[in-house]
Amino acid sequence: MNIAEKRLPQDGRFEVRIGDQNIDLRVSTIPTAFGERVVLRLLNKSGSLLELQDIGLSPGRLKLIKKLVATPHGIILVTGPTGSGKTTTLYAILQSINKPDINIITIEDPVEYQIKGISQIQVNPKIDLTFARGLRSIVRQDPDVILVGEIRDQETAEIAVQSALTGHLVFSTLHTNDSASAITRLVDMGVEPFLISSSVLAVMAQRLVRVLCADCKKPYKPSAIYLESIGVAPEYFGKRSIYKAVGCSKCIQTGYRGRIGIFEIMVLSDSLKSLILKTYDSQHIKNEAARQKMRNLRQDGIQKVREGVTTIEEVLRVTQN
Fold first, then answer.
1. How far apart are CA 192 and CA 174, in angstroms?
2. Which of 117-121, 211-215, 233-237, 312-316 bottoms out in mean pLDDT, i.e. has the lowest?
3. Residue 255 three-state SS
């Protein structure tokens, strides 16, 4: 970062060592009316990468993801707002398929974790190493799997699609609210609908919810009217307990310890592909996916409430329309 520049937004990073832990700090500054505003993002690099079974996928969905990542070619997109765990999910997927005989290359901004056996490229706009330019070179390296940190523009989107159509398995992220909106976003970027329907395998939307503290969570019975108002039938929980956050010394009086993902996985079936060729309205796509029994973010969150992992309030916080 240029320490003398106070008029422009800037991004930077540095690393500190606290005890035996390496903490990576990402810095973002923007100019405001009365000085600069700074946001720091902390990443503990000493912690090991999460395995695919640890991120919060139910057994059925874990089986589905494993089946999808075993496909030889196509695009798998992970969507969600900033800080919703997209990169962690993609790294967990790469870890699960990382074998000596599979050539995996990534292009990221920035490279958050170093993974043994994977070639990782850091984007550098100062020397014109953009996602699009890096991706064009990666394809000539004969990779089996490509991870593009984020699809931000038409050029990157088109090269990613072409890579998927020429026999590569491509993973990437998009900033959209749900899985159906990813299709609309790609069309908005300028990718032809027929290319999307023939290259995209699945779109996975995700959010992070806080996990209840096991030492102080307390069972309670919410009213039937409240449950119905959020679209849950009271009998769905049966005799299972619903918990609420209390707070104790172990969770610093918050009632929560740790976070877990809730997911919405939209696999592009033949009927969805046909629909995308006719319309890319996200609401139509969402309705068709729901008709095919896709479990949306809220439904997956309520399932976690049923299992006693989190609270109804947490699920509503991250899935509020």
1. 17
2. 233-237
3. coil
CA distances from 152 to 75, 134, 148, 182, 198 (A): 15, 14, 10, 12, 20
Contact 74, 199 (CB under 8 A): yes
User: Parallel, antiparallel, or unpaired: how do β-strands 119-122 and 104-108 relate?
Assistant: parallel
β-strand pairing of 169-174 with 145-148: parallel
- Return the DSSP state at 128: T
Question: In this structure, which amino acid lies at residue 61?
Answer: R
Phi, psi of 114 (to 5 degrees): -90, 125
Burial class (CB in 10 A: 0-12, 13-18, 19+), 183: buried
- C-alpha closest to that of 37 among 27, 45, 46: 27
Reading the block at residue 123, the tokens are: 């984007």
DSSP 141: G
Select from 61, 68, 90 the least CA-distant residue to 268. 68
pTM score of the predicted model? 0.89
Q: Which segments within 45-114 are labelled E, that is strand? A: 74-79, 104-108
Q: Are 66 and 161 in contact (CB under 8 A)?
A: no
Cβ-proximal residues to 37 (8 Å cutoff; 6+ apart), any chain:
29, 30
Give the model's pLDDT for residue 233: 85
Q: Is 39 exposed, middle or buried (0-12, 13-18, 19+ CB in 10 A)?
A: exposed
pLDDT in tens, 61-104: 999 999 999 999 999 999 999 889 998 999 999 999 999 999 99
**Token pair for 114:** 């170093």
